[in-house]
Amino acid sequence: MEAGIHINASCGGSGTCGKCKIKIVGGSADSPMHDRLSPAEYEEGFRLACLTSIRGNLDVEIPLESQVDKSALSLKGDREQGSYLLSPKDIYQLVQGWDVDPTVFKRYVELDPPTIADNVSDLTRLISAINRQHGMNGISTDFRVIRKFSRILREADWKVTVTLVLTKKGYKLINVEAGDNRQQNYSIVIDIGTTTIFGQLLNLNECKVVACPDGLCDGAKLFALAEASDYNAQISFGEDVITRIVYAQKPGGLKKMQETVVGTINGIIDELLKMSGIKRSLISHMVVAGNTTMTQLFLGIDPKYIREAPYVPTAHFIPPVRAVHLGIHIGEHVHVYTFPMVASYVGGDIVAGVLGSGIFQRESLTLYMDIGTNGEIVLGNKDWLASVSCSAGPAFEGAGIKFGMRATRGAIEEVSINPRTYEPMILTIGRVKPIGICGSGLIDAVAELMETGIIDQNGKFRLDIAADRVSKGTDGYEYILARKEETQIKDDIALTEIDISNLIRTKAAIYAGCKVLLDSVGLSFRDLEQVIIAGGFGRHLDLEKAIFIGLLPDLEIGKFIFVGNGSLLGARLLSFSQALLKEAERISLMMTNLELSNHAGFMNEFMAAMFLPHTDTGAFPGVQERLRLKRGSLL
Amino acid sequence: MEAGIHINASCGGSGTCGKCKIKIVGGSADSPMHDRLSPAEYEEGFRLACLTSIRGNLDVEIPLESQVDKSALSLKGDREQGSYLLSPKDIYQLVQGWDVDPTVFKRYVELDPPTIADNVSDLTRLISAINRQHGMNGISTDFRVIRKFSRILREADWKVTVTLVLTKKGYKLINVEAGDNRQQNYSIVIDIGTTTIFGQLLNLNECKVVACPDGLCDGAKLFALAEASDYNAQISFGEDVITRIVYAQKPGGLKKMQETVVGTINGIIDELLKMSGIKRSLISHMVVAGNTTMTQLFLGIDPKYIREAPYVPTAHFIPPVRAVHLGIHIGEHVHVYTFPMVASYVGGDIVAGVLGSGIFQRESLTLYMDIGTNGEIVLGNKDWLASVSCSAGPAFEGAGIKFGMRATRGAIEEVSINPRTYEPMILTIGRVKPIGICGSGLIDAVAELMETGIIDQNGKFRLDIAADRVSKGTDGYEYILARKEETQIKDDIALTEIDISNLIRTKAAIYAGCKVLLDSVGLSFRDLEQVIIAGGFGRHLDLEKAIFIGLLPDLEIGKFIFVGNGSLLGARLLSFSQALLKEAERISLMMTNLELSNHAGFMNEFMAAMFLPHTDTGAFPGVQERLRLKRGSLL
User: Fold this and answer.
1) Residue A99 near residue A207, CB atoms below 8 Å
2) Among B111, B118, B119, the residue to mutate for chain A (most A Cβ within 10 A)
């Protein structure tokens, strides 16, 4: 980590997950044998990085499966994807009745130079000119503006562009630039995920993501959107929020966590500025959304009490903070707006998603699911909103799955199994030899194993089926998705019974969360008029297979909408419209969070969902029908 | 300066004033001969510090007259002084109708601990408790509080003391302390003078300056007030605001100036805390008043345009700034309130003085004079206020006077001259052998010289009078106040014709300023119902002699009130009463400043006042009468 290399570490370095395998090729280090290493691997020099003490200079090889590869993180998938995904234009239309009226805006002002007869202070002169020329009253001023603007006024011959922000308490003057600079007003929006951080650069005047020149094609200019992403560098300290909170309790841990996430964000900002060619000083605003733990760590607020019952976050609303105070490399006038939060496990990313997907405006009953490292679910409409959070473990991100990995290059993302030969056909991200399997591949694989009857509805292998690919490995029975010679890791990539059981537990938690949420208001899945699916997870998901395994409810396909990164969607809208600031706060205030840790019904629902697709077959009529047909056709 | 030694430097190191005389007793340095040094002095090793280049280690002796001695700066004189000075109690009564209701206050709150059924954020819990228990709404929160208070709440078992500040935009929560800490609420008020900085530590609950135990006397405890002062360390860069502004234009000069004044303030705060035994963390508020240049330098705002026509300050109002951002060693929640300013040469110190002396509330016409390094004058009542600033040069602080010095130990502060023998009787501050003469001594001396007829009403020596003490020195005719063998500097201390002429210019400028101000509203000195004199200057002043030389108007003595440090007086009141915040702003807004640099009548009035007491003898009937009687008695 000190050398800037980030290695997978699901368990946060506690020596249990075995994901941080490295190979020592030179130099000496103390590192014990471990269950997760075979004697042959140990012999070859493989070690677990987290258990290794360095004794001197060391040459280390980082195997593919331990690498954190960001090449597959691009947001572009959002738009290449199939029919359930909305176009950017359609996405903005989820929310009605807002005008382009950014919270942070620029105005051009011309001042009369002072004379002996009229020598009021520069600030009074400027404020009254803004007042007269733009009809704005009650403007307050940031102290940093006062420190520098007298010289700018004179150098610019009393013609300047002012940047103002609308706060709860009126307008605030945050910057003064020489000349007419109105056309250059940009904002950066950031989604801080536990695993991944996404950023976009917005043109606040044009109300869109900045388009960057991206070469030529047949004489026509090509454009790419100014968007960038990277793994949250905190993943080196642990895969999930709990390991991060634990790390933050160590001496200096909170500071380290804060600096680490800001480091990733600074890298993303650098990339956005580089690709767009826009000067750093022209960024006027920054909007950040993240789950509660990520938000608190980003702000340097100890997340300790998020983890301890009764799970209390420090604050629902964070006043705008100057970005430079957090260590962000950006103009010192820029304030960070942080999306308000609902509860310890329902954060600003969810409020942003609810804002961006327009649920808070609609009459119709909508279920909003954000499935990432955690699963957060919101139910409601314009009159009420309720939420739950299911901490079922990040199986979809690869944790708890033997060959699990994130949705990056080399991850198996699609699986189909021939119902007669039981041989698999796999597709990987980047169409390279496989390294492991990601969330969507996992869902595909389990759905196919079930549909072909290789596993039963409990997720256990049916040994009466003569599938060559099924064998007994070190972790019990498993299905080999790719044989050693077909993989990059020179080892079989298989799905074990334990993996399948972990997946079932995750999908059961999410389904049970939705069920309990509906029950709590006396409604059922059939009452839903819309299901909005957000999160990187949705990008590669096969909707029918997700229903097939019982992760999503068995509703007509037309009711599902994928919005991609809901958190960024909301952050963009907020940058464009000051009217939505109030809406974001209203959403966080009106949302009632159901604590599942305290909920009697949840465990029952969870147990009932520990079946493929569900013990209540009546809840999945379409799946039952399909299984019946399939089996019929095989007979 | 780098060694922390501050030497007099009226001219700011430009090699003209000759005040920075030092004696080199060992080591080598390059330093030229200079007009201000006699050949004998040069021979003995005397040099001007500002012209000396150091070539290696150096042993330097700093003669008394070059030293900056703070021992005589104590504020206590304010209360020991005679009849015109108001007692502290009376001083507070200058302003009517205010309640003790500090801008920054503490409240004790007990919270219900969170449960699973009630797990709103810590901040929401705290704010609603304040709301319920103290009836305060619309409280906003400082981000630093959010960063730290979750832990404090739990460690304090949900019983805490909150510190709130009333801003223009409502209440703001700035600190949370464990337990009931209401009784410990303090404020620091600072008057930043060009020459001297004064500070006091206030108990905000008791509405008074903190009293510190100061020994025993006959078994009874003695108390001293928590007040401290020091020379503004910027004096090493020049005596007046102009030399400071010039220095601030050099590369790094502004930063140096800002750090220098903050260094002095930090020293004063250290002293206040040490003498009172009060912990730094218990200071909740800070109020600063100073002239416009001092205020801008303190805040790190370039004062460049104050000096250039049309003399525009950067801002009249400064939003509260966090003290730590300015480099002040104080709790990070403390904000500095800076008194609003009127113009480039009528600053927050004057607004504070007008606030503290209650002019803004009175029906009666009042003249307020603050005579320090500059002279600022305000005229008005509750309905209107007008001001002028006379930059006549700081003769009262010793500049432009051959043996002039500030009012510190060894300064001649009282002079009387025997009308028959023409021999002087002098008194020095600290009753030690004299080093030089300060402002009040100067006024005394000139009044006595005039009364005894040694000088005429033009300030020229009457050579027809056989006074042994009058002789021709290097600077023309002079009157020897103390002979070589009676002084600490082993040289005659004399008053030259040039000195007298400088004093006349200074007093003429101030008198003319008052006259022009009155003329501008069609009033005359006779219309004045009250003259309030503020500034350190007033502490040693003989009122009758000041009238005698024509510095003050010839009005009945009962109309004059000395308020001591008016700036501190206003700063104290502002700390005690939030209602006065609005009054301070109102004062700065309602005050009309008359620019003398642009004023046709001023030069005429100035020339007319270049006489002792004045060319218009009718304006000084009392003085004329006294001169007549005196001369009669001598016949």
Assistant:
1) no
2) B119
Length reported for chain A: 635
Residue A308 CA to residue A291 CA, distance in Å, equals: 17
Provide the pLDDT for residue A62.
82
Instruction: From chain B, pick out residues whose CB is under 8 angstroms from the CB of A313.
Output: 121-122
pTM: 0.85
* Interchain contact, B299 vs A146, CB within 8 Å: yes
User: Average of pLDDT values for A284-291?
Assistant: 97
Please, are residues A454 and A477 in contact by the beta-carbon 8 Å criterion?
A: no
Q: Is a pLDDT exceeding 50 seen at residue B350?
A: yes
Confidence of residue A9 (pLDDT cuts 50, 70, 90): low
How far apart are the C-alpha atoms of A480 and A187, rounded to whole Å?
A: 48
Q: State whether B316 and A123 contact (CB < 8 Å).
A: yes
* Nearest partner of A162 among A114, A113, A122, judged by Cα: A122
Contacts of B25 (CB under 8 A, 6+ apart): B45, B59, B60, B61
Of residues A141, A169, A301, nearest to B169 (C-beta): A169
Contact A316 B595 (CB under 8 A): no
| Cα A359 off chain centre by | 19
C-beta of residue B333 within 8 angstroms of C-beta of residue B318:
no
Please give the distance of CA A332 from its chain centroid, rounded to a whole number: 27
Neighbours of B570 (CB within 10 A): 33
Q: Strand pairing partners for A160?
A: A109, A178
- Sign of torsion over alpha carbons A85, A89, A92, A97: negative
- The first and second tokens of residue A14, run together, are 């506690």
Query: Coil, helix or strand for A423?
Result: coil
Both tokens of B297, joined, read: 């330098």
- Most B CBs within 10 Å, among A176, A292, A314, to test the B interface: A314
Q: How many CB pairs under 8 A join A and B?
A: 137
Which residues on chain A are in Cβ contact (under 8 Å) with B117?
A: 598
- The pLDDT of residue A261 is 98
Query: Is 80 exceeded by the pLDDT of residue B66?
Result: no
Minimal CA separation from B155 to chain A, in Å: 13
What is the per-residue pLDDT across A242-254, written as a single tens digit (0 to 9) for each? 999 999 999 999 9
Q: Each residue of A497-521: pLDDT tens digit?
A: 999 999 999 999 999 999 999 999 9
Q: Can you list the domains of chain B with their CATH numbers?
A: 21-67 (no CATH), 104-178 (3.10.20.880), 190-338 (3.30.420.480), 358-394+504-634 (3.30.420.40), 406-493 (no CATH)
Nearest Cβ partner for B116 among A115, A309, A316:
A309
CA-based nearest residue to B596, from B584, B587, B588, B605: B605
| Contact yes or no for B116 and A598 at CB 8 A | yes
Residue B600 C-alpha, separation from nearest chain A C-alpha, in angstroms: 13
CA angle B456, B459, B463 (to 5 degrees): 55
What is the predicted pLDDT for the residue at B56? 86
Considering only CB atoms, which chain B residues are within 8 Å of A151? 302, 304
Residues B595, A299: C-beta atoms closer than 8 Å:
no
pLDDT tens, position by position, A166-186: 988 889 999 999 999 999 999
Interface touch B315/A143, C-beta < 8 Å: no
B310/A597 Cβ within 8 A: no
Neighbour-count burial of B382, counting CB atoms closer than 10 A to its CB (0-12 exposed, 13-18 middle, 19+ buried): middle
Confidence of residue B110 (pLDDT cuts 50, 70, 90): very high
Distances B473 to A204, B435, B446, B482 between C-alpha atoms, Å: 76, 18, 18, 14
In Å, how far is A588's CA from the nearest CA of chain B? 12
Scanning every residue of chain B, which has its alpha carbon at the shortest distance from the alpha carbon of A141?
B319
